[in-house]
Each structure stands twice: as C-alpha cells, then as structure tokens.
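Inverse folding, one chain.
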C-alpha cells in the first residue's frame, strides 16, 4: 500500500455525511422511522419528527433531540398540506414509513374498509409528493417505504399485492414529475420492528428463528439496516425513480 492509498480495513467516517441537511421523517416514533431519525442525527443531519401518537413521539424525541416535532396522521391530506406549508425553511429530504399491509382472504374482506385502506395509502403518497413540492431542495429526496411480501401470489395477499405493484410505478412517475427532486422507494421484506412483534404476538420468536436459519444472510433484517439504506439514498444524488429491495435474500428462497 502506498501512502496515497486508503486503508481499506478501516470503515469510512460517516459522522458528517448529512451535515447541514434537514430530514423530515414521517412515522418517526418507532421502528424504521425512529431508527432513520437516529442515523440521520449520527450522520450530522437535523430531523423534523412526525408521527400520529403524541406520547410516543415525545418519548422518541427525547432520545433524538430533533429540530422540531409535529403530531399528524399523514393520511389526513388537509393536515399534511398545512404541515408542509408551515415549514419555516426548505428541507433536504422527506422519508415516510407510514402505512402498512393488509392481509386477508377474499371471503373475509370488508370491501369498504379495503377501499379506504388502498385509497388512503395512495392518497397519502401522492399528498406527500404534492405538498412537499417547493419545500424540498433540488436534488433532495422523497423516499417511501413499501414491501416485497406481495410479489408472490398467495391466499390473503390480493390487496397487498396490488399495493406492492402500484408503488414502484408511482415512484417512477413521480421522479419525472418532481425532477430535479429525487423520488425513490425502499421495498422491505420482514423487518424486526415493534409493529412486526405486535402483529405476530407469541409467534414472533419462531419467525425470527425461521429467518435466521433460512435467509442467505443468516440473520433477521432490522430497522437499522433499512435506515442505513435510506441514508445512502439521501446521500447519492444519482439515484432516482428506483425501487431498492432489502429483505436479506428472502425473495431467493423457494415458496
């Protein structure tokens, strides 16, 4: 190794990767949103934390020390419009982890509730894109969280499959409409979050063991993995209109 060559054994210093930048994190009170806020702060950035539950948001903010917080339901587009309109300064990035999947067999679907779920998720995504326009700097990022679970057909996956297919197409189109703002989607497989634990209940540890044994990475994907990818996408100004899978190789496994 010559004196001009870097020492490849030492990880890069990333403490200033987002220095001087501000990130709005929607869904910041737990899980992937909270970990993204934490990693943005570790990279030198400022955070505006947004979540529905004021008590959980207050507890999360005590750990992160954000620039500010806001309590709102991102599916309330009127409130979303006011939030972005009231921002005192432009921001560099917006990430939304809000919204979740709906699994149910056709026979059990409440069609009215299903329509609300699907409509609210699409409207929320479009609302964030519409109302953040003019508040995000050029080459900044809109970053949404989706999933990979609906790519394989299965009983009870119809609604989730439709949303899984819709979000990448929506992301690509928004990247053209909002340019030079960048728009990207993270498609996550199973992520070990408090939400996952609450959904699986007593079955959470069995699911973790199954994934540790079967995934090519031999461990469970955690919110820190998703957050690290989010920070990378924020930093790399050549990335737009794309979907980035993060599932530990889960899609490679046979059904």
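Residues assigned per position:
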């Amino acid at each position: 190794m010559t004196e001009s060559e870097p020492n490849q054994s030492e990880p890069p210093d990333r403490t200033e990767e987002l220095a001087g930048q501000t990130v709005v994190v929607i869904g910041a009170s737990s899980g992937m949103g909270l970990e993204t806020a934490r990693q943005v702060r570790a990279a030198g950035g400022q955070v505006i934390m947004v979540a529905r539950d004021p008590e959980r948001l207050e507890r999360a903010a005590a750990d992160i020390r954000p620039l500010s917080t806001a309590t709102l339901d991102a599916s309330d587009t009127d409130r979303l419009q006011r939030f972005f309109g009231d921002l005192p300064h432009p921001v560099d990035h917006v990430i939304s982890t809000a919204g979740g999947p709906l699994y149910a067999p056709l026979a059990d679907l409440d069609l009215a509730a299903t329509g609300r779920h699907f409509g609210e998720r699409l409207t929320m995504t479009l609302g964030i894109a519409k109302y953040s326009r003019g508040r995000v700097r050029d080459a900044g990022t809109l970053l949404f969280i989706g999933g990979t679970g609906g790519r394989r057909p299965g009983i009870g996956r119809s609604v989730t499959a439709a949303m899984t297919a819709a979000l990448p197409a929506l992301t690509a189109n928004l990247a053209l409409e909002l340019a030079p703002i960048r728009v990207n989607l993270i498609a996550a497989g199973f992520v070990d979050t408090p939400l996952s634990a609450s959904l699986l209940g007593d079955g959470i540890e069995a699911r973790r063991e199954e994934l540790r044994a079967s995934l090519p990475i031999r461990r469970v994907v955690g919110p820190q993995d998703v957050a690290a990818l989010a920070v990378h996408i924020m930093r790399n100004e050549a990335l737009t209109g794309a979907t980035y899978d993060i599932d530990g190789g889960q899609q490679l496994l046979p059904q």
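Confidence is low (pLDDT under 50) at residues 1-12. Residues 48 and 62 are 13 Å apart (CA to CA).
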